[in-house]
Amino acid sequence: GPGEKITFEVGWGFINAGTSYLSVLDTVLVDDNICWQIESRAHTNKVLSKLYPVNDSIISLMDIKKLFSRGIKKRLREGTYKRDREYRIEPENSQVLKISKGKVKKTRLLDHPVQDVLSAFYWVRTRDIKVGDVLHVEAIDNMKTYNLAVKVLKRETVKVKAGKFDCFKIQPIILGEGLFKAKGEIFVWITADERRIPIKMKSKIFIGAI
Fold first, then answer.
1. Rounded distance, CA 194 to CA 128, Å?
2. String of b and e for 21-59 (b: at least 16 CB within 10 Å)?
3. Model confidence, pTM
4. Which of 11, 75, 105, 186 has its CA 20 to 30 A from that of 49?
């Protein structure tokens, strides 16, 4: 709910690369529907920012009652790469709209409500899960839809700076072509209590892991 904020240290091997935050901001009305504003922010530290600065912000609008996405805004700043994206999802009209400077630039029809890259994770946090479960999520990113399978692999104790936590280890996998299939494995550890707090995330990259 509003006020939840989780801070992560981003590491690459033994190097502290930066800081990331997952926050639930205040609620907002979207077409008379109450939504959580879920924000993901990440930035590199002072040293790495001189070599390759990263300052990303993503805000998802997740319907509180129906638990699907009603839109997402991205502000990406990674080195010389700069992108601002906004998408409005209208489940009642079975469509997603790409917005630029306040105007609709592109429209795509949808068969049913979907999640975005952030709301999909928060939807998983609401599920009653156990080891061996596989959750299926229909998600959209950059106007493309894809099927996401989330596997609950095992239960284990994870120790981080905040303490020791009893966690489920989960793995999101794209069914077909897509982000996770193209760029390697991602694992997430969430607490096994009713809070489902993400304690640790790990992603393999071309050299080592983050």
1. 8
2. ebbbeeeeebeeeebbbbbbbbbbbeebeeeebbebbbb
3. 0.89
4. 186
